[in-house]
Specification:
Shape: globular
Largest sheet: 4 strands, mixed
Order of helices and strands: EHEEEEHEEE
Structural class: alpha/beta
Strand order of the largest sheet: 1-4-3-2
Distance between the termini: 39 Å
Number of helices: 2
Strand content: 35-45%
Radius of gyration: 16 Å
Number of strands: 8
Length: 130
């Protein structure tokens, strides 16, 4: 039987400190936090997707072979233009690594602004160009 993948449901982000990471994604990217489980695991929800936040060193989670904080490059699509993204990042005290710059997104050309989360993951905040 052959199948195709429809969409990404969630991904797991390994971090040093769940509270610091979750707060950053809520404050900077506007994600909604959902806590689950007695050991303070959480998810960050946005659109129809979520990011499960996994503290480094937890042995009872299945994960990538070398999952470690700061090893991800993530691209998020927003409905606002790059100027608004830059302004928002500046108002949050977030350093901009690069951008705005044109890149190739899954559905066409995007304008991207790059920063880093508290663990050093590269975060690309993009909007599709018309």
């Amino acid at each position: 039987m052959r199948f195709t993948v429809d969409r990404l449901d969630h991904l797991v982000l390994t971090c040093n400190e769940v509270e610091i990471t979750a707060t950053w994604y809520q404050r900077v990217l506007g994600m909604e936090r959902e806590d689950f489980g007695p050991d303070r695991r959480c998810a960050l929800k946005f659109g129809g997707q979520k990011i499960n936040v996994r503290p480094a060193g937890v042995l009872d989670w299945q994960s990538g072979r070398d999952a470690c904080p700061g090893s991800q490059d993530l691209c998020f699509i927003t409905a606002v233009g790059p100027e608004e993204v830059v302004g928002h990042l500046h108002s949050c005290g977030i350093a901009i690594e690069a951008g705005p710059t044109k890149r190739a997104g899954a559905l066409g050309e995007i304008s991207s602004v790059y920063c880093r989360d508290p663990d050093g993951n590269l975060i690309e905040i993009s909007s599709y160009l018309e």
